[in-house]
Write a structure and sequence with these properties.
This protein has a seven-stranded antiparallel beta sheet. A seven-stranded mixed beta sheet has the order 10-9-8-11-12-14-13, sandwiched between helices. It starts with a strand and ends with a strand. About 35% of the residues lie in helices and about 25% in strands. It has 16 helices and 14 strands. It has two domains: about 200 residues, Hen1, N-terminal domain (c-terminal autoproteolytic domain of nucleoporin nup98, 2-Layer Sandwich); about 200 residues, Rossmann fold, CATH 3.40.50. α15 links the parallel β11 and β12. α8 packs parallel to α10. It comes from Isoptericola jiangsuensis. Its cofactor is Mg(2+). Its EC number is 2.1.1.386.
C-alpha cells in the first residue's frame, strides 16, 4: 500500500525535521510482515511530500504466527492476513513515525505543536460502508474529505464499484494528530486486522486517540471496528472514554458471535443459557466425545474442555482466524501432554465431506445453520447426519417468532443470517432431515419463555435410531 502526506507550510522541508526522516534519503524499515520504505517524491520550500510504501512478504507474515497457533498446513500460507492491508499500513506508519506521533521535535517543537496545512492521499484503500463512512470518520476531525469509489473493472461499468476508494484528506491539522488518526482509522475503514487482538488493544486505541477520540461523534463506531467488534474490549474502551468527557456512555453492538438486536444484558444471559443447555444435554445423553462444528473463537469449546467427562473434544471452523483465537483461549501451548491429546482444532467446511468429522459420540451445531445459504443446507445435512453420523447431534438456531420482543428490530438478528425460522418451520426441517438419515428428533427451548412466541433460541436433539 502507498500513502503520501504533503504540506505547503514554508519552508515545506521542515516536514523532514518533524518526521525525523531526511528528504534526501530513501530509508527502508523491516517489519514483521514485509518492508516499509520512506521516500520524498518532492521536497522544496513551497511543497514537500513524503511517501510511505508498504510491501508485504507473505512468507514472513506467516512466520509471525504465535506459539499457540495450531498447524493448519497450507492454510498458514493461504489465508486472509496479507489482505488486511490497511492494518499493515497502520502498523508500519506507527512504527516508522513513532517519534512524530508523540508530537516531539527537538529542532522544531513550535511546529510540532501547531496545525499545519496537510494533504493525505491513499490511492487505493478498503472502505467497508463506502465513501459515506470515510466522511463520517474524518470529517469531524477537521479534514475536507474526498473519497472516490474505485470501479471493479473500468472495462465493465455495469459491474459497479468495488469496496475500495481513493481517499484524499486536506486540512490544517497538527501532524501528530494526523498520524494518530490515520493509525486508528485506516484499519477501522477496512474493519480488519492482520493480528490477534488482546487486552492491550484498548490501551493502544486510547493512546492514539488521546486528543481526539473522546469527542468524536462516531467514537462508538470507531471503537467497535478498531477492536474487531469484541464486546468486552469495546465496553471497556467506551467506559474509559465516557469518563474522559463526563458522559454516561452508550449502548454497544454485540460480539460477532451474538445476535445483533438483543439488549446487552439479555444477550449475555442468552449466550450463557445456550452454553448451559447444550452442555447439560450432552451430559444427560452420556456423550464421551464431542465435536463442535462451527466452533468460532472457542467459547463453548472452553466449557467442553473443562468438563472431565469428555475424553475427546474437537473444534471445527472455516475461519483460521477464529481457530487461532480458540487456540489461545484454550491455552493449547501450555496444556500438559495428556490434556493436549484430548483436544483437536482443525479447519473445515461443513458442506464438504470430511473424514475428521466422524467417530464422535456427539456433534454440536450451535447458531450455525442460519449462516448457511438455504440451497447448501442439504449438503450440510448429508455431511453431518449422513456421513459423519454421530450418535447425537444438537442444533440450535434463533426463533424468528421471538424477534417481535426486540424493540426496534427490523429484519433478522444478525447481518450474516441467511434465514431465521419460526418454530413450525424449524420442526418441519428437522423432522424431515431426521427421517431421511435415520435419526429421531425432539425439541427444546432455550431462554426466557414468552407464552405466545416461545423462547429466543430453539434446539433440536437428533438421536440416531
Amino acid at each position: 500500500m502507498l500513502l503520501t502526506l504533503t504540506t505547503t507550510h514554508r519552508p515545506a522541508t521542515d516536514l523532514g525535521h518533524l518526521l525525523h526522516k531526511h528528504p534526501d534519503r530513501v530509508q527502508e524499515f523491516a517489519q514483521s510482515f514485509g518492508t516499509a520504505t520512506v521516500l520524498y517524491p518532492e521536497a522544496s520550500d513551497e511543497r514537500c511530500t513524503v511517501a510511505l510504501l508498504v510491501e508485504i512478504d507473505p512468507v514472513r507474515l506467516a512466520r509471525t504466527a504465535g506459539r499457540g497457533t495450531p498447524d493448519f498446513s497450507l492454510s498458514q500460507y493461504v489465508n486472509d492476513r496479507s489482505y488486511a492491508a490497511s492494518s499493515l499500513l497502520g502498523v508500519a506508519l506507527a512504527d516508522v513515525f513513532s517519534t512524530a506521533r508523540r508530537g516531539r521535535s527537538d529542532s522544531r517543537q513550535h511546529l510540532a505543536d501547531a496545525p499545519l496545512p496537510l494533504e493525505v492521499h491513499v490511492p487505493v484503500l478498503p472502505c467497508r460502508g463506502g465513501p459515506e463512512i470515510a466522511h463520517r470518520l474524518f470529517g469531524p476531525l477537521g479534514w475536507s474529505v474526498t473519497a472516490t469509489p474505485v470501479p471493479l473493472d473500468d472495462r465493465f461499468p455495469a459491474w459497479g464499484d468495488s469496496r475500495y476508494v481513493s481517499l484524499t484528506l486536506t486540512g490544517d491539522v497538527r501532524l501528530a494528530d494526523a498520524l494518530n488518526q490515520l493509525h486508528v482509522l485506516l484499519p477501522v475503514l477496512d474493519e480488519a486486522k492482520h493480528y490477534w487482538q488482546g487486552d492491550d488493544e484498548v490501551d493502544k486505541l486510547l493512546r492514539s486517540g488521546e486528543t481526539w477520540l473522546a469527542g468524536h461523534p462516531e467514537r462508538e463506531l470507531v471503537t467497535r471496528r478498531y477492536l474487531g467488534r469484541r464486546t468486552t474490549l469495546a465496553h471497556t474502551a467506551l467506559t474509559r472514554l465516557a469518563e474522559l468527557d463526563g458522559s454516561t456512555g452508550s449502548s454497544l453492538a454485540p460480539a460477532e458471535d451474538e445476535e445483533v438486536a438483543q439488549p446487552p444484558e439479555q444477550r449475555v444471559s442468552l449466550n450463557a443459557q445456550r452454553h448451559e443447555a447444550v452442555l447439560a444435554t450432552l451430559l444427560e445423553l452420556g456423550a464421551g466425545s464431542v465435536v463442535d462444528l462451527g466452533c468460532g473463537p472457542g467459547q463453548f469449546l472452553a466449557r467442553l474442555v473443562d468438563e472431565p467427562s469428555f475424553t475427546r473434544v474437537a473444534g471445527v471452523d472455516v475461519s483460521t482466524r477464529s481457530l487461532r483465537t480458540a487456540a489461545r483461549r484454550l491455552h493449547l501451548d501450555t496444556l500438559s501432554e495428556r490434556q493436549a491429546a484430548r483436544v483437536n482444532l482443525f479447519q473445515g467446511a461443513l458442506t464438504y465431506t470430511d473424514a475428521r468429522f466422524a467417530g464422535f459420540d456427539a456433534a454440536v451445531l450451535m447458531e450455525v445453520i442460519e449462516h448457511v445459504d438455504p440451497p447448501r443446507l442439504a449438503a450440510l445435512e448429508r455431511v453431518v447426519l449422513g456421513t459423519a453420523r454421530p450418535g447425537v447431534v444438537l442444533v440450535t438456531t434463533p426463533n424468528a417468532e421471538y424477534n417481535a420482543n426486540y424493540e426496534g428490530l427490523t429484519g433478522m438478528r444478525h447481518p450474516d443470517h441467511r434465514f431465521e425460522w419460526d418454530r413450525a418451520t424449524f420442526q418441519r426441517w428437522a423432522e424431515r432431515a431426521a427421517a431421511e438419515h435415520g435419526y429421531e428428533v425432539t425439541f427444546r427451548g432455550i431462554g426466557d419463555v414468552d407464552p405466545a412466541r416461545g423462547t429466543p433460541t430453539q434446539m433440536a436433539v437428533f438421536r440416531r435410531g
